[in-house]
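Extended Data, panel c. Modelled sequence:
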Amino acid sequence: MAHLLGAQALHVDFGTGTVLESVTVGLDDGDRIGIVGANGAGKSSLMKILAGRLEPHDGIVTTSRGTRVGVLDQSDHVDPEITVAKAIVGDADEHEWASDPRIRDVMAGLVPDLAADAVVGTLSGGQQRRVALAHVLVDDHDVVFLDEPTNHLDVDGVAWLAEHLNRRWARGRGALAVVTHDRWFLDAVTTRTWEVHDGEVEVYEGGYAAYILQRVERDRIASATESKRQNLLRKELAWLRRGAPARTTKPKFRIDAANELIADVPPIRDSIKLNRMAASRLGKDVVELIRCTVRYPANDGSADADGKGGGEVEVLTEIDWNIGPGERTGILGENGAGKSTLLKLITGDLEPTSGRVKTGSTVKVATLSQQLAELEEHAGERVSAVVKRFSSVSLADGNEMTPTQLLERLGFTPVQLKTQVGRLSGGQRRRLQLLLVLLTEPNVLVLDEPTNDLDTDILAAMEDLLDSWPGTLIVVSHDRYLMERVTDQQYAVIDGRLRHLPGGVDEYVELSRERRAKTGGVGSFGGQTSATGSGGGAAPASAAMPTLDGAEKRALEKELAAAERRLGKLMRETAEVHEAMAEHDQADFEGLATLTEKLRSNAAETSALETRWLELGDRLGK
């Protein structure tokens, strides 16, 4: 395993406090790193330094000779004067890039709707971001750094990107480091997690689910005083183990440990209680759409992003949907499919061209929009003064919480409560916006892309709060993790019609691929997708695993079982050592040193065995 890039003793301080303090990290062939942490913790700064785009105030970065590095920075912009094709492949002739399967795959996956000769400056911000990402991915890099690559990608686009990155290099080759708040994406592409906090970088094995498990273990051992934070993480772990497919990519002993940790954690949501409370607040009638059709006149300023121009555009066609009390529903669909129009019908902001919308007499709808304009009137006020105008809120878990308590639950510190609204960060403003919506005590809540500007811990806190909010919830989001986490059913807007998805997000992704395979894209880069449904290129032959004969398979299965038994024993031994240290005489430094050395030895052996376990599992297709 070749070393590609490393940093030693990095120190960064922008004058407002230390961002990174004596950080030493490295990237080797085969590394797939997810970088997480609170907003402002230093994730992007660390990535920029490793990629050579930012000089540290102290410390050094070394790159092995010949290593090719590709970077997508949040600040990267595409020259607005050039065409899409030139922005992606430079001056290469069309016959050159069109004959390259990898380039065709990237273009079909990221920009199928764009024309090759379209001028970049005429594109939307999201389209330009996809062009910038495509430019990075078409090149043959040894190390790829991606900062928030899933921004402006829909659910299908995120799934494509995950598959592309997973097959981009042969096994054990190339390195990826990604900063993202998309937790599903982290689990799909990363095998190690770097958490940036308090100037340090803490390393965890596995993707997001494994990272949460290890944080729970760490917090439980480290201090009982973090019980509030620990309980939230345990609830997050319970969701990962119970609600969604297992994503830990860890040996069985890890799964057993997770199940032990969540044995006394109640279900994520008490659906029966929530529905009962919602019904008492709403009655039987909430919102019913009856054969609703919406058409926009072409080139009319009233047409939103769903309008496509050219005569009269029919965005939604004879939609029938009866929304009941306490339902928690996610809405999926491509950009421009009609999701925003559907939300406007529900909220009453738009009348259908034909059909009608029946709204219950007790319904009180509130919307968390993508814009933050509603906070502008409070820009000069302190946060505490704004929320004091509202009374306490009763939640389904039996708690009655004041606005200040709710803010603290969403991660606001006492100092931030005294800050003027206009001086808050984007993430803080987003959380305050959510709270102000909830404090109006709506019984139907519409969330339109609610995850913008929020880090993973705050997302978990927001989801925890929504678990106990009694009412009907409608969510539109490209964040697959959030969608699966807070909703109980999903629908998709496809070709102007509303389709129920019994198979959830996976069914939607499969439907999108089938449609793309049949129709291709509407721009120059659309076309037949690969066998994986992700683009025109196939996985490199070098990435395929050889077929095992019977004897080889039995030998590998025997080794796998032995590794699991040994890992389980190491886990038990480590727990015993921790207990011994807790009871040991703290003045006996020699005895404590012996126990500490035992922990280090166990950790080293565990790491090596887990790596081998993953290799064996991959070869056996498990």
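Residues 550-583 form the longest helix (34 residues). This feature is highlighted in the accompanying rendering.
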